UniProtKB/TrEMBL annotation:
It comes from the Bacteria. Pfam families: Peptidase_M43, Por_Secre_tail. InterPro entries: MetalloPept_cat_dom_sf (IPR024079), Peptidase_M43 (IPR008754), Secre_tail (IPR026444). Belongs to the peptidase M43B family. SUPFAM superfamilies: Metalloproteases ('zincins'), catalytic domain. It comes from Chitinophaga varians. GO terms for biological process: proteolysis. Keywords: Disulfide bond, Hydrolase, Metal-binding, Metalloprotease, Protease, Signal, Zinc. This is T9SS type A sorting domain-containing protein.
Length: 713
């Protein structure tokens, strides 16, 4: 069971280092590989790329004596139950430490032993607190987010919960332009964890997380780890550095990939005396315990080597070079009058109504209060729709503005909205005036409805995909199908994040007053873990009915684990079904659909098991007996030879009791009104009763209905 192993691994690793420096970067990467084995190839490829860049750097003729000085904008997210525990002064003290450590100007660099003084590295990388937001507004570069009392975050997966608003953290600023640092409480005795580029982390998770008591040199900082070296260490990981001992557990089998750092068996705790030797470097000068990438106390960390700074420059210049071009350190000068549109809402993706109600977010990016502005929008190349907004919007504030409604025909649309004449003056920055949104309004589908994914377009015309994390989602497999050439699937085995939801949604379907709606589809699925395992969290396939354009949905079908799979044994490779590894499933949608227009959503909930396929979707109708429609209730078969069904055209809300009597008036069976099943039926069994006349009495809240029934053999 992969998930249980990860928990035990993390627990054991943490217990071993209580009270000592503990970095979670290597642990988090190992956990991710255990959960997503395919990531190992990504990590290996990244390491090969680093080695190749290092070789090229060593071989090429330098056109400059030294690398250029660069300054990287930093945003610090303080995510705590009391964010004021980390003061602005504490943040600035950490930035000062980084600028010294990464430029070899730290006062204690003089404590590096003479044998290693010649190889002290200067990365020429400096850091500034961001002066402008991604939206080009002034900022201090510090974001404070209040969490629940005592909340801490696990380093598992790089502490992702600290990095999203929706999980109690703080959303990253554009990681191509800013180095994001999250300062928070970490569980498990960890001081920090990095999510470096090139190792399979989602872009919005890149950066470092640091324990708030090991951040900076003042304020809430604790003892021992009080000189800011934890952040220096974690940013070293971000720029491609490994622990100096190579995380090989003391075997001397793995190096850190840097030529000028001595081979080292294991991490160092405390503040040793020089020289210190070990099993990997038994002779003078021994191991470089004062390197920032070891585990020594802050007071005994003094240097990066030239090889380490070279590797960091390789990463900066070749993998995250956009940080070098960022204008995040440049202060913003606001003009007097600047109206901006930051978003369009209400008209995005698939619409299920031809009447559109667009809204825009208007933001005042000028110093003057915004009292009037003209807002216009157009659909494709159509006529302009005009709205004159008036109000009193202070500087750097936003307001949601509804625009005039329109009606659209079936088709795809690009809505462009823009502002003009803020406060009756020319707009100082026309570059931020425009916001756009794409949407489509599709023709309704008719029943019977069929889809086999045989056409090249995906999703098929009129269908839609809901993919909130913009990662793995439904796709078309053009080589695998059930008695066909194609199908739809989600590759759960390669999914990086658990419990993510992805929906494949049909067009809007009109039931056309039919009595019953049934769904049939073929499914093929497998799991990575032992399907008989208990307590595991499985991939799940659900079918939902939505009648409000996917805003809400009712579950009609839900299967996982051994109830879903079509190959009974675990599959460690990517599952590709044979033609006999498909199952035909059916779902009665009648009760959820009613008489309303609807869509069906096929929902995949990923938990890193294996692929799920669907094919040959068919939604059909089945009309009810016209006698039942007319009478509202029907007893059949009548006469009967045993089993008898009482069917209702519509589920009776006021039915209290159903009694069955023989010809002598004796009660032989009774059921409560809530015994009516989901198919609007109730069943009685007369197999052991004699032939003759019977009476079914339906007792409603304010009335009763008696129907005669015959039993014959």
């Amino acid at each position: 069971m992969r998930h249980t192993f990860i928990i035990l691994f993390t627990l054991l690793y943490s217990l071993a280092a209580i009270g000592q420096r503990q970095c979670g970067t290597a642990v988090a990467l190992q956990q991710r590989v255990l959960e997503h084995p395919s990531l190992q190839q990504v990590i290996d490829n990244n390491e090969k790329k680093m080695q190749l860049l290092q070789q090229r750097r060593m071989m090429r003729v330098q056109t400059e004596a030294v690398p250029q000085n660069v300054t990287i904008p930093v945003v610090v997210h303080i995510v705590l139950d009391n964010p004021d525990l980390v003061t602005d002064a504490q943040v600035m003290s950490q930035i000062a430490v980084l600028n010294q450590d990464y430029n070899a100007t730290n006062p204690d660099v003089s404590q590096v032993p003479p044998v290693w003084q010649p190889i002290i590295g200067n990365s020429r990388i400096s850091f500034c607190l961001a002066q402008r937001t991604p939206g080009d507004e002034p900022t201090t570069g510090i974001v404070r987010v209040k969490t629940a009392a005592g909340q801490s975050f696990s380093i598992s997966g790089g502490a992702p919960d600290a990095k999203y608003d929706q999980t109690g953290g703080s959303d990253a600023w554009d990681t191509q332009k800013y180095l994001n640092i999250w300062v928070t409480r970490l569980s498990g005795n960890y001081l920090g964890v990095a999510a470096p580029p090139g190792n399979g982390y989602p872009a919005e998770q890149l950066g470092v997380v640091v324990l708030y008591t090991a951040f900076g040199t003042t304020g809430s900082v604790g003892r021992i780890y009080n000189l800011g070296r934890t952040t220096t260490h974690e940013i070293g990981h971000f720029f491609g550095l490994k622990h100096i001992w190579g995380d090989d557990g003391g075997t001397c089998s793995v190096d850190d990939g840097i030529a000028d750092t001595p081979l080292q068996g294991d991490n160092t705790y405390g503040c040793p005396s020089f020289p210190k030797t070990d099993n990997c470097s038994p002779n003078f000068p021994g191991i470089m315990f004062m390197n920032y990438m070891d585990y020594s106390d802050d007071a005994c960390m003094h240097l990066f080597t030239a090889g380490q700074t070279g590797r960091m420059r390789d990463v900066l210049e070749n993998i995250v070079s956009s940080l070098m071009a960022s204008n995040g350190c440049t202060p913003v000068v606001l003009p007097a009058n600047d109206a901006a549109l930051t978003a369009v809402s209400g008209v995005t993706g698939k619409l299920c109504d031809n009447r559109i109600l667009p809204r825009v977010t208007l933001r005042n990016k000028g110093t003057n209060a915004l009292t009037a502005v003209r807002i216009l929008y157009r659909l494709n190349n159509g006529a302009l729709v005009n709205y004159n907004w008036q109000g009193n919007l202070p500087s750097l504030q936003s307001v949601d503005v509804p625009l005039p409604a329109s009606q659209v025909a079936v088709g795809a649309y690009n809505l462009q909205a823009y502002t003009q004449s803020p406060n009756g003056q020319p707009d100082a920055n026309v570059a931020n005036d425009t916001a756009a949104s794409r949407f489509h309004f599709d023709a309704e589908a008719q029943l019977p409805f069929e889809e086999g994914f045989e056409q090249d377009s995906f999703p098929p015309p009129g269908w839609d995909i809901y993919n909130p994390d913009r990662s793995f989602t439904w796709e078309r497999d053009r080589n695998v199908g059930h008695n066909s050439k194609a199908s739809a699937l989600v590759r759960n085995k390669g999914y990086n994040v658990n419990d993510q939801t992805d929906d494949l949604i049909t067009p809007v379907i009109d039931p056309q007053a039919h009595d019953s709606i049934f769904l049939f589809f073929d499914v093929a699925a497998a799991v990575y873990s032992d399907p008989n395992m208990t307590g595991n969290v499985w991939d799940t396939l659900q079918v939902l009915v939505t009648k409000d354009c996917h805003q809400t949905g009712a579950i009609a079908y839900s299967k996982w684990g051994k109830y879903l799979i079509t190959r009974p044994t675990a599959v460690q490779d990517e599952f590709i079904p044979n033609n006999n590894e498909w199952r035909r499933d059916s779902v009665d949608l009648t009760a959820l659909v009613g008489k309303d227009k609807f869509q069906v959503a096929f929902r995949n909930i990923s938990n890193a098991e294996n692929n799920i396929y669907i094919d040959n979707i068919r939604i059909v109708t089945k009309d009810i007996n016209p006698d039942l429609r007319q009478a509202g209730v029907l007893i059949h078969p009548n006469p009967t030879d045993g089993l008898v069904w009482i069917s209702f055209y519509e589920r009776p809300s006021d039915l209290q009791q159903v009694n069955l009597y023989n010809a002598a008036g004796q009660l032989i069976a009774s059921k409560p009104g809530n015994a009516v099943g989901p198919n609007n039926r109730m069943t009685f069994n007369l197999v052991n009763e004699p032939n003759g006349v019977y009476f079914v009495k339906l007792i409603y809240r304010n009335r009763a209905n008696t129907i005669k029934l015959m039993k014959v053999r």
